[in-house]
Design brief:
A seven-stranded mixed beta sheet has the order 3-2-1-4-6-5-7, with helices on both faces. It is an alpha/beta fold. It starts with 11 loop residues before the first helix and ends in an 8-residue tail after the last helix. Helix 1 packs across helix 12 and helix 3 runs parallel beside helix 4. InterPro entries: Glyco_trans_2-like, Nucleotide-diphossugar_trans. This is glucomannan 4-beta-mannosyltransferase.
Length: about 550
């Protein structure tokens, strides 16, 4: 008698899943060699080229800034500089008439900051005109701002409260409208302060003499300082990035080519230069950079003063920071699209200055810097883990980014212990910035979106103290966040990339040879934190 062989029954659902997996693996193996490997190799070569461009730019600026600090003369020695002196006989007639413009939009928390600081500037009262350009849509805020202007006017300050029927052109439209007033024709210079900026009283006395003694200068730009840099980890990260921008990028541009991007505030302009350049334009979300490039193409020069400083506020919520970064990334790319040929065809600017503006200022800093950070370190390198046939040289994956990071840290030495987390955070934000850059280059979707950066002033600390005190007394119950509030915090794109990086990290841990999984798991954690919107709450 022949024994029958045992029969095993495989569940039908398992067979279906097994068939799908097998088919997917077969398709992957068929496509990998002729398509995926060559494509990923091309991505690696392009990414390495962009990384080298950024690396050379950072090294160049590092060398130049060292030379500036060691051998360069101070601005007072390089330019004609004669401090303006008070004269009892002449009164204020030897001082030029200066216009102060303060654009604002629903600035409930900080409107008193800039208005009070502007009214406190050490400048003859009869030679100072202050415009508060209020585009607020909240009638309560408009009334509060107007009353603040009236309060200062009653003290003898020449301050005017100006509103518009609409917000056409946003900030650029408000500034342009302000310059149309008949009394502005008596003003030689205009200084602009955003609503959260608080310049010191001697801001004009230190900056204006450079413009008076050097008729080729159109702009004197001051440096930003941040009153809330220690508020949370998010503000510390921003301080590191912006300090490098001011300490290195602005200083190098000013010293080598007398050109840099106007920062939109804490800068003094020669009104004649604004008019010659074509005035304020609202074709992009970076009206300040637009004006600076156009003025530079007219032959005007700029001066950056690192010791001329004004206090300001950093966005302390992730939502506000993301909107700001979208505008700052999308706008320059869109402006580059609009002005590249104008720069190339211009005959008033020297060839090497054109190269600097097109290659260094726009291409490397405003486009390549965002894209290589995201594509190479957050996309291409993780994908090469899944395709081991593609080789990434260690100098591109480790050495170059390490040197770039060290060079970036020179602006804020007090935060050097946060350098590693700053790298992870910048990698996350590079996703958002790359998306905004592509929107600007292609000019679609949110290319012209303008969202005013939320400012909280002292209300954050005051409200926190009040809530803490009330909680101690047992009078206040902690309000639970609603589901809608939680959903508003979610950033699904970042969470999706967190899943992708976690998968690549697990694959590398099991099958990989490069030990990238440590970096990938840390990057996954940072993407997750930002994805759930909690980075602004970490102190």
């Amino acid at each position: 008698m022949v024994e029958s062989e045992p029969k095993f029954y495989i569940p039908e659902s398992f067979q279906v899943n097994y068939d799908v997996t097998s088919q997917f693996r077969m398709i992957w193996n068929v496509m990998k060699a002729p398509l995926i490997v060559p494509f990923l190799n091309a991505c690696v070569y392009i990414s390495l080229a962009m990384a080298l461009m950024l690396f050379m730019e950072r090294v160049y600026m590092g060398i130049v800034i060292v030379l500036i600090k060691l051998f360069w003369k101070k601005p007072e020695q390089r330019y004609n500089y004669e401090p303006l002196q008070d004269d009892e006989e002449l009164g204020g007639s030897n001082f030029p008439v200066v216009l102060v413009q303060i654009p604002m939009f629903n600035e409930r928390e900080v409107y008193k900051v800039s208005i009070g600081a502007a009214c406190g500037l050490s400048w003859p009262t009869d030679r100072l005109v202050i415009q508060v350009l209020d585009d607020s849509t909240d009638p309560v805020v408009k009334q509060m701002v107007e009353m603040e202007c009236q309060r200062w006017a009653s003290k003898g300050i020449n301050i005017t409260y100006q509103i518009r029927e609409n917000r056409v052109g946003y900030k650029a439209g408000a500034l342009k409208e302000g310059l149309k007033r008949s009394y502005v024709k008596h003003c030689e210079y205009v200084v602009i302060f955003d609503a959260d900026f608080s310049p010191p009283p001697d801001f004009l006395r230190r900056g204006i003499p450079f413009l008076v003694g050097n008729p080729e200068l159109a702009l004197v730009q001051g440096r930003w300082r941040f009153v809330n840099a220690n508020e949370c980890l998010l503000t510390r990260m921003q301080e590191m990035s912006l300090d490098y921008h001011f300490t290195v990028e602005q200083e190098v541009g000013s010293a080598t080519h007398a050109f840099f991007g106007f920062n939109g505030t804490a800068g003094i302009w020669r009104i004649a230069a604004i008019n010659e350049a074509g005035g304020w334009k609202d074709r992009t979300t970076v009206e300040d950079m637009d004006l600076a490039v156009r003025a530079s193409l007219r032959g005007w020069k700029f001066l950056y003063l690192g010791d001329l400083q004004a206090n300001s506020e950093l966005p302390s919520t992730l939502r506000a920071f993301r909107f700001q970064q979208h505008r700052w990334s999308c706008g320059p790319a869109n402006l580059f699209r609009k002005m590249a040929m104008d720069i190339i065809r211009n005959k008033k600017v020297k060839f090497w200055k054109k190269v600097y503006v097109i290659y260094s200022f726009f291409l490397v800093r405003k486009i390549v810097a965002h894209m290589v950070t995201f594509f190479f370190y957050c996309l291409v390198i993780p994908l090469t883990i899944l395709v081991p046939e593609v080789y990434v040289p260690i100098w591109g994956a480790v050495y170059i980014p390490s040197i770039i990071t060290i060079l970036n840290s020179v602006g804020t030495p007090r935060s050097i212990h946060l350098l590693f987390y700053w790298i992870l955070f910048e990698n996350v934000m590079s996703l958002h910035r790359t998306k905004a850059t592509l929107i600007g280059l292609l000019e679609y979707g949110r290319a012209n979106e303008w969202v005013v950066t939320e400012k909280l002033g002292d209300s954050v600390n005051n409200n926190k103290l009040k809530s803490d005190a009330a909680a101690k007394k047992g009078n206040v119950k902690v309000q639970k966040k609603t589901r809608s509030k939680f959903m508003e915090r979610l950033n699904l794109l970042e969470l999706g990339f967190a899943v992708f990086l976690f998968f690549c990290g697990c694959y590398d841990y099991v099958h990989g040879k490069h030990n990238y999984f440590i970096y990938l798991f840390l990057q996954t954690l940072t993407f997750t934190i930002v994805g759930f919107g909690y980075v602004g709450t970490i102190v």
